[in-house]
Protein backbone atom coordinates (compact mmCIF):
# COMPACT_ATOMS: atom_id res chain seq x y z
CA UNK A 1 0.00 0.00 0.00
CA UNK A 2 1.31 3.49 -0.88
CA UNK A 3 2.12 5.66 2.21
CA UNK A 4 -0.72 8.11 1.41
CA UNK A 5 -3.26 5.28 1.20
CA UNK A 6 -1.99 3.89 4.50
CA UNK A 7 -2.42 7.28 6.18
CA UNK A 8 -5.96 7.58 4.74
CA UNK A 9 -6.83 4.05 5.95
CA UNK A 10 -5.46 4.76 9.45
CA UNK A 11 -7.29 8.09 9.61
CA UNK A 12 -10.51 6.29 8.60
CA UNK A 13 -10.07 3.68 11.33
CA UNK A 14 -9.29 6.43 13.85
CA UNK A 15 -12.36 8.45 12.83
CA UNK A 16 -14.58 5.35 13.09
CA UNK A 17 -13.22 4.66 16.60
CA UNK A 18 -13.81 8.28 17.68
CA UNK A 19 -17.35 8.21 16.24
CA UNK A 20 -18.06 4.98 18.09
CA UNK A 21 -16.92 6.47 21.41
CA UNK A 22 -18.95 9.65 20.76
CA UNK A 23 -22.02 7.57 19.93
CA UNK A 24 -21.58 5.54 23.12
CA UNK A 25 -21.09 8.71 25.20
CA UNK A 26 -24.21 10.31 23.68
CA UNK A 27 -26.25 7.15 24.36
CA UNK A 28 -24.95 7.11 27.93
CA UNK A 29 -25.92 10.73 28.60
CA UNK A 30 -29.31 10.51 26.93
CA UNK A 31 -30.22 7.19 28.56
CA UNK A 32 -29.18 8.15 32.09
CA UNK A 33 -30.05 11.83 32.27
CA UNK A 34 -33.09 12.23 30.01
CA UNK A 35 -35.83 10.08 31.43
CA UNK A 36 -39.56 10.04 30.85
CA UNK A 37 -41.67 12.08 33.26
CA UNK A 38 -44.43 9.46 32.90
CA UNK A 39 -42.60 6.13 33.06
CA UNK A 40 -44.08 2.68 32.45
CA UNK A 41 -47.16 3.91 30.56
CA UNK A 42 -47.23 0.72 28.45
CA UNK A 43 -47.55 -1.40 31.61
CA UNK A 44 -50.61 0.50 32.89
CA UNK A 45 -54.10 -0.69 32.00
CA UNK A 46 -57.10 1.14 30.63
CA UNK A 47 -60.14 0.96 32.93
CA UNK A 48 -58.46 -1.11 35.65
CA UNK A 49 -55.57 -0.95 38.09
CA UNK A 50 -52.30 -2.51 37.00
CA UNK A 51 -50.28 -4.36 39.63
CA UNK A 52 -46.64 -5.34 40.02
CA UNK A 53 -45.40 -8.36 41.97
CA UNK A 54 -42.09 -7.56 43.65
CA UNK A 55 -40.14 -10.33 45.41
CA UNK A 56 -37.88 -9.66 48.38
CA UNK A 57 -39.90 -6.51 48.91
CA UNK A 58 -39.92 -6.06 52.68
CA UNK A 59 -36.60 -4.17 52.63
CA UNK A 60 -33.71 -2.99 50.50
CA UNK A 61 -33.92 -2.56 46.75
CA UNK A 62 -37.20 -4.51 46.46
CA UNK A 63 -39.05 -2.18 48.84
CA UNK A 64 -37.52 0.83 47.13
CA UNK A 65 -38.73 -0.39 43.70
CA UNK A 66 -42.19 -1.08 45.15
CA UNK A 67 -42.32 2.45 46.61
CA UNK A 68 -41.44 3.95 43.23
CA UNK A 69 -44.04 1.79 41.46
CA UNK A 70 -46.71 3.03 43.89
CA UNK A 71 -45.58 6.59 43.17
CA UNK A 72 -46.09 5.88 39.46
CA UNK A 73 -49.67 4.71 40.06
CA UNK A 74 -49.27 0.92 40.26
CA UNK A 75 -50.74 -1.40 42.85
CA UNK A 76 -48.11 -3.71 44.32
CA UNK A 77 -47.88 -7.20 45.74
CA UNK A 78 -44.97 -7.47 48.16
CA UNK A 79 -43.51 -10.95 48.53
CA UNK A 80 -41.32 -11.75 51.52
CA UNK A 81 -40.78 -14.36 54.19
CA UNK A 82 -41.26 -12.54 57.50
CA UNK A 83 -44.91 -11.56 58.05
CA UNK A 84 -44.17 -8.71 60.49
CA UNK A 85 -41.55 -7.13 58.25
CA UNK A 86 -43.84 -7.46 55.25
CA UNK A 87 -46.75 -5.87 57.12
CA UNK A 88 -44.52 -2.95 58.19
CA UNK A 89 -43.27 -2.53 54.61
CA UNK A 90 -46.83 -2.58 53.26
CA UNK A 91 -47.91 0.03 55.82
CA UNK A 92 -44.96 2.26 54.91
CA UNK A 93 -46.20 2.45 51.32
CA UNK A 94 -49.36 4.19 52.47
CA UNK A 95 -51.47 3.00 49.53
CA UNK A 96 -54.83 1.16 49.42
CA UNK A 97 -53.53 -1.04 46.58
CA UNK A 98 -50.90 -3.07 48.42
CA UNK A 99 -51.09 -6.79 49.10
CA UNK A 100 -48.56 -9.05 50.77
CA UNK A 101 -47.57 -12.64 50.05
CA UNK A 102 -45.71 -14.57 52.72
CA UNK A 103 -43.45 -17.00 50.87
CA UNK A 104 -40.01 -18.20 51.86
CA UNK A 105 -38.17 -18.09 48.55
CA UNK A 106 -35.49 -20.45 49.81
CA UNK A 107 -37.76 -23.24 51.02
CA UNK A 108 -41.05 -22.80 49.10
CA UNK A 109 -42.38 -25.96 47.46
CA UNK A 110 -43.83 -25.86 43.92
CA UNK A 111 -47.31 -26.22 45.50
CA UNK A 112 -46.71 -23.28 47.81
CA UNK A 113 -45.55 -21.07 44.93
CA UNK A 114 -48.43 -22.05 42.69
CA UNK A 115 -50.87 -21.42 45.60
CA UNK A 116 -49.34 -17.97 46.05
CA UNK A 117 -49.69 -17.20 42.34
CA UNK A 118 -53.33 -18.39 42.33
CA UNK A 119 -54.08 -16.15 45.32
CA UNK A 120 -53.23 -13.06 43.26
CA UNK A 121 -54.76 -14.17 39.97
CA UNK A 122 -57.71 -11.80 40.52
CA UNK A 123 -55.34 -8.85 40.04
CA UNK A 124 -54.25 -7.50 36.68
CA UNK A 125 -50.51 -8.05 37.09
CA UNK A 126 -48.45 -6.54 34.31
CA UNK A 127 -45.04 -6.44 36.03
CA UNK A 128 -42.97 -9.11 37.75
CA UNK A 129 -39.81 -7.95 39.53
CA UNK A 130 -37.66 -10.96 40.47
CA UNK A 131 -35.61 -9.14 43.09
CA UNK A 132 -35.19 -11.58 45.95
CA UNK A 133 -31.64 -12.78 46.37
CA UNK A 134 -28.62 -12.60 48.57
CA UNK A 135 -26.14 -14.58 50.63
CA UNK A 136 -28.00 -17.37 52.46
CA UNK A 137 -25.14 -18.59 54.62
CA UNK A 138 -23.79 -18.11 58.13
CA UNK A 139 -21.44 -15.14 58.61
CA UNK A 140 -19.00 -14.30 57.21
CA UNK A 141 -20.65 -14.06 53.79
CA UNK A 142 -17.31 -13.88 51.98
CA UNK A 143 -15.59 -17.26 52.24
CA UNK A 144 -13.93 -19.93 50.13
CA UNK A 145 -16.30 -22.40 48.54
CA UNK A 146 -14.76 -25.28 50.46
CA UNK A 147 -15.90 -23.75 53.79
CA UNK A 148 -19.58 -23.78 52.80
CA UNK A 149 -21.80 -26.62 53.94
CA UNK A 150 -23.68 -28.49 51.24
CA UNK A 151 -26.87 -26.93 52.64
CA UNK A 152 -25.36 -23.44 52.13
CA UNK A 153 -24.40 -24.30 48.55
CA UNK A 154 -27.96 -25.46 47.88
CA UNK A 155 -29.46 -22.44 49.66
CA UNK A 156 -27.83 -20.09 47.13
CA UNK A 157 -29.34 -22.03 44.24
CA UNK A 158 -32.74 -22.19 45.96
CA UNK A 159 -32.96 -18.51 46.92
CA UNK A 160 -31.24 -16.83 43.97
CA UNK A 161 -32.03 -19.13 41.05
CA UNK A 162 -34.65 -21.86 41.58
CA UNK A 163 -37.30 -19.58 43.07
CA UNK A 164 -37.20 -16.91 40.36
CA UNK A 165 -37.26 -19.58 37.63
CA UNK A 166 -40.28 -21.32 39.17
CA UNK A 167 -42.12 -18.08 39.88
CA UNK A 168 -41.54 -16.73 36.36
CA UNK A 169 -42.71 -20.03 34.90
CA UNK A 170 -45.99 -19.74 36.83
CA UNK A 171 -46.43 -15.99 36.33
CA UNK A 172 -46.01 -15.93 32.54
CA UNK A 173 -49.64 -16.92 31.81
CA UNK A 174 -50.87 -14.07 34.05
CA UNK A 175 -48.51 -11.58 32.41
CA UNK A 176 -49.59 -12.76 28.96
CA UNK A 177 -53.30 -12.50 29.81
CA UNK A 178 -52.91 -9.08 31.37
CA UNK A 179 -52.84 -7.35 27.98
CA UNK A 180 -56.29 -6.24 26.82
CA UNK A 181 -55.51 -3.39 24.40
CA UNK A 182 -53.13 -3.28 21.44
CA UNK A 183 -50.50 -1.03 23.02
CA UNK A 184 -50.41 -2.68 26.41
CA UNK A 185 -47.27 -4.53 27.44
CA UNK A 186 -46.07 -6.62 30.39
CA UNK A 187 -42.64 -6.85 31.96
CA UNK A 188 -40.34 -9.30 33.72
CA UNK A 189 -37.32 -7.67 35.37
CA UNK A 190 -34.64 -9.91 36.88
CA UNK A 191 -31.85 -8.81 39.24
CA UNK A 192 -28.35 -9.86 38.38
CA UNK A 193 -25.10 -8.33 39.57
CA UNK A 194 -21.71 -7.19 38.35
CA UNK A 195 -20.58 -10.33 40.19
CA UNK A 196 -22.09 -12.38 37.36
CA UNK A 197 -18.65 -12.51 35.73
CA UNK A 198 -17.38 -14.67 38.60
CA UNK A 199 -15.93 -13.27 41.82
CA UNK A 200 -13.75 -15.06 44.37
CA UNK A 201 -15.06 -15.80 47.90
CA UNK A 202 -18.66 -15.37 46.70
CA UNK A 203 -18.56 -18.21 44.20
CA UNK A 204 -22.14 -19.42 44.70
CA UNK A 205 -23.56 -15.90 44.71
CA UNK A 206 -21.67 -15.02 41.52
CA UNK A 207 -22.73 -18.24 39.85
CA UNK A 208 -26.40 -17.76 40.64
CA UNK A 209 -26.26 -14.14 39.45
CA UNK A 210 -24.85 -15.55 36.20
CA UNK A 211 -27.90 -17.82 36.11
CA UNK A 212 -30.22 -14.80 36.54
CA UNK A 213 -28.43 -13.15 33.64
CA UNK A 214 -28.57 -15.99 31.14
CA UNK A 215 -32.10 -16.99 32.20
CA UNK A 216 -33.22 -13.47 31.41
CA UNK A 217 -31.41 -13.22 28.08
CA UNK A 218 -32.79 -16.55 26.94
CA UNK A 219 -36.33 -15.77 28.08
CA UNK A 220 -36.25 -12.36 26.43
CA UNK A 221 -35.28 -13.90 23.08
CA UNK A 222 -37.90 -16.61 23.46
CA UNK A 223 -40.77 -14.29 24.42
CA UNK A 224 -40.27 -11.92 21.52
CA UNK A 225 -40.37 -14.78 19.02
CA UNK A 226 -43.93 -15.88 19.88
CA UNK A 227 -46.84 -13.56 18.95
CA UNK A 228 -48.68 -14.75 22.08
CA UNK A 229 -45.88 -13.45 24.34
CA UNK A 230 -44.15 -10.80 22.24
CA UNK A 231 -45.80 -8.10 24.35
CA UNK A 232 -43.88 -9.29 27.45
CA UNK A 233 -40.60 -7.42 27.80
CA UNK A 234 -37.85 -9.15 29.72
CA UNK A 235 -34.88 -7.24 31.15
CA UNK A 236 -31.99 -8.15 33.37
CA UNK A 237 -30.70 -5.43 35.68
CA UNK A 238 -26.96 -5.60 36.30
CA UNK A 239 -26.06 -3.80 39.51
CA UNK A 240 -22.86 -2.67 41.14
CA UNK A 241 -22.74 -2.00 44.86
CA UNK A 242 -25.85 -0.74 46.62
CA UNK A 243 -25.96 -0.13 50.37
CA UNK A 244 -28.57 -2.45 51.85
CA UNK A 245 -29.02 -4.91 54.69
CA UNK A 246 -27.19 -7.61 52.70
CA UNK A 247 -24.39 -5.23 51.66
CA UNK A 248 -23.56 -3.30 54.79
CA UNK A 249 -19.97 -2.71 53.72
CA UNK A 250 -20.82 -0.67 50.64
CA UNK A 251 -19.87 2.67 52.20
CA UNK A 252 -20.07 5.50 49.70
CA UNK A 253 -22.26 3.48 47.30
CA UNK A 254 -25.76 4.50 46.29
CA UNK A 255 -28.34 3.53 48.92
CA UNK A 256 -31.15 1.04 48.38
CA UNK A 257 -33.85 3.57 49.27
CA UNK A 258 -33.04 5.77 46.25
CA UNK A 259 -31.97 2.97 43.95
CA UNK A 260 -35.56 1.93 43.18
CA UNK A 261 -36.23 5.17 41.32
CA UNK A 262 -33.24 4.49 39.05
CA UNK A 263 -34.52 0.99 38.32
CA UNK A 264 -38.06 2.12 37.53
CA UNK A 265 -36.88 5.21 35.64
CA UNK A 266 -34.50 3.14 33.52
CA UNK A 267 -36.98 0.60 32.19
CA UNK A 268 -38.63 2.54 29.34
CA UNK A 269 -35.31 3.73 27.88
CA UNK A 270 -33.92 0.20 27.91
CA UNK A 271 -37.03 -1.33 26.33
CA UNK A 272 -37.30 1.35 23.64
CA UNK A 273 -33.65 0.69 22.69
CA UNK A 274 -34.39 -3.05 22.56
CA UNK A 275 -31.80 -3.76 25.25
CA UNK A 276 -32.09 -6.99 27.17
CA UNK A 277 -29.61 -5.88 29.83
CA UNK A 278 -29.99 -2.66 31.77
CA UNK A 279 -27.64 -0.91 34.20
CA UNK A 280 -30.09 1.52 35.75
CA UNK A 281 -27.61 3.68 37.66
CA UNK A 282 -25.01 5.68 35.70
CA UNK A 283 -22.21 5.00 38.20
CA UNK A 284 -22.68 1.25 37.84
CA UNK A 285 -22.96 1.56 34.07
CA UNK A 286 -19.55 3.23 33.87
CA UNK A 287 -17.96 0.71 36.19
CA UNK A 288 -19.50 -2.38 34.57
CA UNK A 289 -18.83 -1.05 31.04
CA UNK A 290 -15.18 -0.72 32.01
CA UNK A 291 -15.14 -4.24 33.45
CA UNK A 292 -16.95 -5.83 30.51
CA UNK A 293 -15.41 -4.04 27.56
CA UNK A 294 -12.14 -2.35 28.41
CA UNK A 295 -10.22 -4.11 31.18
CA UNK A 296 -8.16 -7.10 30.09
CA UNK A 297 -8.85 -10.32 32.01
CA UNK A 298 -5.68 -9.99 34.12
CA UNK A 299 -6.66 -6.51 35.34
CA UNK A 300 -10.29 -7.51 35.91
CA UNK A 301 -9.11 -10.41 38.08
CA UNK A 302 -6.67 -8.17 39.94
CA UNK A 303 -9.19 -5.43 40.76
CA UNK A 304 -12.04 -7.84 41.58
CA UNK A 305 -9.79 -9.94 43.80
CA UNK A 306 -8.36 -6.94 45.66
CA UNK A 307 -11.79 -5.42 46.28
CA UNK A 308 -13.26 -8.70 47.49
CA UNK A 309 -10.14 -9.53 49.53
CA UNK A 310 -10.46 -6.20 51.35
CA UNK A 311 -14.10 -6.96 52.23
CA UNK A 312 -13.23 -10.51 53.21
CA UNK A 313 -10.47 -9.25 55.55
CA UNK A 314 -12.90 -6.84 57.18
CA UNK A 315 -15.39 -9.65 57.69
CA UNK A 316 -12.68 -11.90 59.11
CA UNK A 317 -11.79 -9.13 61.60
CA UNK A 318 -15.46 -8.83 62.63
CA UNK A 319 -15.64 -12.60 63.10
CA UNK A 320 -12.45 -12.59 65.20
CA UNK A 321 -13.98 -9.95 67.51
CA UNK A 322 -17.18 -11.99 67.85
CA UNK A 323 -15.23 -15.04 69.06
N1 LIG B 1 -27.04 -4.62 47.39
C1 LIG B 1 -26.16 -4.81 46.43
O1 LIG B 1 -25.01 -4.30 46.46
C2 LIG B 1 -26.53 -5.64 45.23
C3 LIG B 1 -25.64 -5.70 44.16
C4 LIG B 1 -25.96 -6.47 43.07
C5 LIG B 1 -27.15 -7.17 43.02
N2 LIG B 1 -28.01 -7.10 44.08
C6 LIG B 1 -29.24 -7.89 44.00
O2 LIG B 1 -30.36 -7.09 44.29
C7 LIG B 1 -31.37 -7.87 44.92
C8 LIG B 1 -31.81 -7.18 46.21
O3 LIG B 1 -30.68 -7.00 47.05
P1 LIG B 1 -30.73 -6.13 48.39
O4 LIG B 1 -29.34 -5.66 48.59
O5 LIG B 1 -31.84 -5.17 48.37
O6 LIG B 1 -31.03 -7.27 49.48
P2 LIG B 1 -31.59 -7.11 50.96
O7 LIG B 1 -31.42 -5.71 51.46
O8 LIG B 1 -30.98 -8.21 51.75
O9 LIG B 1 -33.14 -7.38 50.79
C9 LIG B 1 -33.55 -8.64 50.41
C10 LIG B 1 -35.05 -8.75 50.55
O10 LIG B 1 -35.37 -10.11 50.30
C11 LIG B 1 -36.06 -10.64 51.44
N3 LIG B 1 -35.70 -12.02 51.63
C12 LIG B 1 -34.55 -12.53 52.10
N4 LIG B 1 -34.61 -13.87 52.16
C13 LIG B 1 -35.85 -14.20 51.74
C14 LIG B 1 -36.51 -15.43 51.59
N5 LIG B 1 -35.94 -16.59 51.91
N6 LIG B 1 -37.77 -15.42 51.11
C15 LIG B 1 -38.39 -14.26 50.79
N7 LIG B 1 -37.81 -13.06 50.93
C16 LIG B 1 -36.55 -13.03 51.41
C17 LIG B 1 -35.60 -9.79 52.59
O11 LIG B 1 -36.53 -9.90 53.63
P3 LIG B 1 -36.08 -9.87 55.18
O12 LIG B 1 -35.52 -8.50 55.39
O13 LIG B 1 -37.35 -10.12 55.88
O14 LIG B 1 -35.06 -10.97 55.35
C18 LIG B 1 -35.56 -8.41 51.94
O15 LIG B 1 -36.86 -7.91 51.82
C19 LIG B 1 -30.76 -9.24 45.15
O16 LIG B 1 -31.16 -10.11 44.11
C20 LIG B 1 -29.27 -8.99 45.06
O17 LIG B 1 -28.55 -10.12 44.62
C21 LIG B 1 -27.73 -6.36 45.19
UniProtKB/TrEMBL annotation:
A single GO molecular function term of this UniProt record: oxidoreductase activity
Ranges in a coiled coil: none
Keywords assigned: Membrane, Oxidoreductase, Transmembrane, Transmembrane helix
Cross-referenced Gene3D superfamilies: NAD(P)-binding Rossmann-like Domain
GO cellular component terms given for this protein: endoplasmic reticulum
Protein origin, superkingdom: Eukaryota
A matching Pfam family: adh_short
Annotated InterPro entries: NAD(P)-bd_dom_sf, SDR_fam, VLCFA-Steroid_DH
Annotated transmembrane regions: 6-34
Family: Belongs to the short-chain dehydrogenases/reductases (SDR) family.
Record PANTHER family: RH59310P
Name the UniProt record assigns to this protein: Uncharacterized protein
Organism: Cercophora newfieldiana
Lineage, highest ranks first: Eukaryota, Fungi, Dikarya, Ascomycota, Pezizomycotina
